[in-house]
Amino acid sequence: MKQYIVGLVRTFSARERLVFFVAVAVAIISGLFVGLYALQRATFVVPDVGGSYSEGVVGQPSFVNPILAKDGTPDKDLVALTFANIPSIAQSIKYSDDFKVWTVRIKDDAVWHDESSITSDDILFTVQMIKNPDTLSPLFADWQNITATRVSEREVRFELLNSYALFENILRELYPVPKKLFADLSPSTLKLSSYNLEPVGSGPFMFDGLSRRKDGFVEEYTFKAFEKYSAIGKAPYMKKFSIKFFENEERLVRAYNLGIIDGFGTYNPALLDGLKIHFTVRDVPSTKYYAAFFNAHAYVPLASRQTRQALSLAVDKSAIINIVMAGRGSVLNGPVPSSLHVYDAEVESYYSFDRQKARELLGSAGWEWNQETNEWTQGTSVLRLSLTVPDLFPLREIAGQLKVYWEALGIPTSVSVLDPSVVSGEIIRTRNYEVLVFGNILSREPDPYSFWHSSERFYPGLNLSLYENASVDSAIIALRSAQVGSARRAQLFSIVQDDVAADYPALFIASSRYLYVTKGNIPGIAIHDIALPHQRFDNVTEWYLKTRRVFSRPTLQEQEETSSLPTDAPTGQ
Fold this sequence. Notes:
- By secondary structure, this protein is of the alpha+beta class.
- It folds into 3 domains: 41 residues; 242 residues, Periplasmic binding protein-like II (D-Maltodextrin-Binding Protein, domain 2, 3-Layer(aba) Sandwich); 227 residues, Dipeptide-binding Protein, Domain 3 (Dipeptide-binding Protein, domain 3, Roll), CATH 3.10.105.
- The protein has 17 helices and 21 strands.
- Strands 2, 7, 8, 9, 10, 11, 12, 16, 17, 18, 19 and 21 form a 12-stranded mixed β-sheet that branches.
- Strand 14 and strand 15 form a beta hairpin.
- Helix 9 runs antiparallel to helix 11 and helix 15 packs antiparallel against helix 16.
- The two termini are 55 Å apart.
């Protein structure tokens, strides 16, 4: 056959040979495309194991120890990678009908990174260290009035003084440490352990090494996948994970542009303007919100509901979000962000930008507009406002916008920008402010007690408006014993939201978005809604860098993972 074809081709003219070879080439190429198309139709893309990922973080690790790590720090990020929390290691979590007794049973094959078993003694030791005031654990307040006892080697019982249906929120932030590594240390010397920087945990990634500069600055932590995490959850797709540390955001962005890191997270959309190479942004809903809290105890005019309502209606919150947050935020109309499932849209009726109505409300509250001095007066009093704000983005920028809007209403407004530690310490402790521009963070299954119950009006409570409402107090207490997901819980939350919004104890402004930036060619980074930054790693075992094709239809979980990039995720060049 070959000789016949060769002989036949030799009989062709030069033109006929050209046509013949072009036709053969087209047929071959077409066949390849048809074959590839058929293969594509017959197979499915699923995540594959392998690859190394590097994330950039601003700051420095100090204690990669769940007992000592503070929220919002690099320590907490590293803890989330290297330690597993109670819901992760639990085979079951059971509770009594009154939500006062909770029993946790540990999965039989759950082990530490050194492959020794996780036991109830590890959990009890962790709780005891947290509860000891000499340890200075950030979790100390959460664990007072909670007793932990050993039931068996793999079972622990927690007894609460009061009913608390949301105790799993506390368990979710409890990452046990191995007792054998810290048992010989006293609470006051716990911080001296070398394991605080070279952790032995139980999470999806295990410590592999760290690098420091000569001046002591930690430049990088490297981790490798912990294969036996499969006894707790799903083993990671990624084989290696590293965290690189930077002194500031400018250096972080520069590292991304140089290809030194693959991604980073931020609440500051201005960082996107500095990116020079192709990127993808995952715009993640957050339960973090910003508000201006009115303190009538410090400034008597704020005791008037009509005055507080006027101040609220005089502000265009959508415009502030566009100016300060580049539109990457959601308008907040009450004490619960709209991203949470308990949100009640009825609160939206209380807030709308209306400067004319704001003027009328001030008049109804007894204030008169003095045409000569351009001031609102009441007898000898002049309506003025003083804002206190920590020197943090976007709080200081929001305070600047409030000054613009309130002065447009005719109210002179001063802004005191202070060191964040001073605000969170002395200012909040003494409640020494008229209007405090501050942020709150709610859990995904929120508990409004510390923010709006009247008993939390003074330090260490976080009722920053010193708000009192008997109806709200009753609903909040009832919420603590209402089953999660029940109709009663939804009803009670509606009461809290409606009453708080109607009283205008604060000007609720915006809930922020967490922005996670990665190189455009990274296929699988799954981040769901978060309350705290370290929760971006809640689903880190679903993250993947490689894919493969299979002939069988992927599982539902694989389908979800391969579609982890949000359809509305903007990209940049």
